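Quick question, first post here. What does this chain look like in 3D?
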Amino acid sequence: MTSLGALVVALILALTPLGHPFGFVTLPVPILLSILAIAALYLAFAEMLKPQAMRAGGSRRASRAHHSTTRRFRPF
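> Answer (accepted):
Ran it through. Tokens below.
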């Protein structure tokens, strides 16, 4: 089963009456909207900051490779 399939099963159990035998209860709409807003903000900030993180990570890799003077041992 893929991650997406597991997510679909989890959502069906959590958000439909099929979850009642497992002890799931329906969440109030404001809580569901809050969860949705938090997830959307997280994704938006992650996408906005990704280019900055990639630039910072790339410059660190380049400086490490530039300063390396020892050869790595390769057995074969």
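Helices lie at 3-15, 29-67.
The first helix runs from residue 3 to 15.
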